[in-house]
Amino acid sequence: MQILRTESLKNRNTLSLQAYASALAVVDSDQQLTQALDWSRAQGLAVLPLGQGSNVVLAGDIDALVISQRSSGFSVIAQDENEVVLRVAAGHDWHSLVAATLKQNMYGLENLALIPGTVGAAPIQNIGAYGVELKRFVRGVQAVDIATGEHLTLTAHECAFAYRDSVFKRELRDRLIITSVDLGLSRKPLLEISYPALRSELDDLGVHEPTPADVFAAVVSVRRRRLPDPVQEPNAGSFFKNPVLSAQQAQPLLKQYAGIPNFPQADDGIKIPAAWLIDQLGWKGRMHNGVGVHAGHALVLVNYGSDSGAALLRLAMDIVSSVQQRFGITLEIEPRVYGN
Ligand code: FAD
Ligand code: EPU
């Protein structure tokens, strides 16, 4: 294992922001991960695990040892007539896992197709799309404690998953490196097609009795059409979380704006698309200082050629203020911001 000093992270984040890490280690095994952690402790340097950098804003240089795990692959660790439990290495590419499991008749992940990133990062914000969240499948998470090097396993319950949230963003924030994730997949097709955009995509494709493969294809198709490819237009997906309002907070809004899309939640909250709020205020397609709001989706901020995370965060703050002023709702940034 090699530790590289003063490494540029520009090609390691999908917003393509320029930032230098004090040090970078690319590790292939648990043993190399232990060596890297020992080294960081000896140097008194903080540690930042980085996957594919698709949910981070690098707003400045990173005074830490950045650790990238290249481990990949999965194996069956338990099974019965209904379920197969896979242990998947943290460095495995998420979308490749979705495609591979579908091919091997292990079902459930289809709605989460084409989400960029690694398996190790997926539990951090409990990735979700098109009516499905990761939490439905997690049976356990293996991790290493950054401070002590100790290996531990968390149950799904201990992960405290919620919408775009988990214990890894709260009590255990910055304390663990996830090394593998156990996922329970169904042996029988598990269809979830209630999300409106997915249903209408299936209709447009002329599919009335979808198979898991149809759902996978429809999700890939709708995502390709709606979301910009970070290779062409550097972005981090949704820049803000969708606000979840209490029924009382939501009532006046639903009354005033008849067409406002809204998603009632299991706990009585009502999720309002942040994209709709931002779109109403005319932000879509606006560009300033090399950064802007994507012309096709108001929730996606794009780096059109600025190296600076600061410009992007300024734009984000302007959007937050204008939504606050007009709707009285405070938007929360979704990706993790580092280096500011
Ligand atoms: P990174 O961006 O590298 O890291 C994200 C956070 O996780 C950082 O805090 C990092 O320190 C931490 N982390 C990474 N790996 C580990 C590890 N092994 N152990 C501990 N901490 C770790 N997300 C969704 O939920 N739904 C979507 O539909 C969706 N669509 C997207 C579309 C686009 C075009 C883009 C660019 C992003 C989208 N995202 C979406 C966000 C992103 O894909 C996910 O958050 C993904 O899980 C991030 O994976 P990553 O490997 O790139 O993580
Ligand atoms: N909308 C607008 N204007 C726009 C875009 C969308 O008014 O410019 C409206 C749409 O009409 C639709 C609603 O907003 O009624 C929701 O749009 P969409 O289906 O695109 O979903 P979203 O709420 O913007 C969320 C996730 C996405 C995930 C999709 C699909 C969050 C923060 N984002 O986006 O996740 O892929 O649903 O489930 O929850 C990500 O986290 O990076 C991400 C892309």
Biggest β-sheet, characterized? 5 strands, antiparallel
**Bound small molecules, which ones?**
flavin-adenine dinucleotide, uridine-diphosphate-2(N-acetylglucosaminyl) butyric acid
Low-confidence stretches: none
What is the average of the pLDDT values?
97
Q: What is the β-strand count? A: 20
Compute the gyration radius: what is it? 20 Å
Describe what this molecule looks like in 3D.
The protein is α+β, with helices and mostly antiparallel strands. The protein has seven helices and 20 strands. The protein has helices at residues 30-43, 94-103, 196-204, 212-226, 247-256, 274-280, 309-327; strands spanning 3-8, 20-27, 46-49, 56-58, 62-69, 74-79, 83-89, 128-129, 132-133, 138-145, 151-155, 176-186, 235-238, 244-245, 263-264, 270-271, 287-288, 291-293, 300-303, 336-338. The strands form six sheets. A five-stranded antiparallel β-sheet has the order 6-7-12-10-11, with no helix packed on it. Strands 1-2-5-3 form a four-stranded mixed β-sheet, covered by helices on one side. A hairpin with a 2-residue loop joins strand 17 and strand 18. The structure holds flavin-adenine dinucleotide (FAD) and uridine-diphosphate-2(N-acetylglucosaminyl) butyric acid. Flavin-adenine dinucleotide binds at residues 14, 48-56, 69, 90, 115-118, 120-122, 124-125, 127-129, 176-178, 227, 230, 235-237, 336.
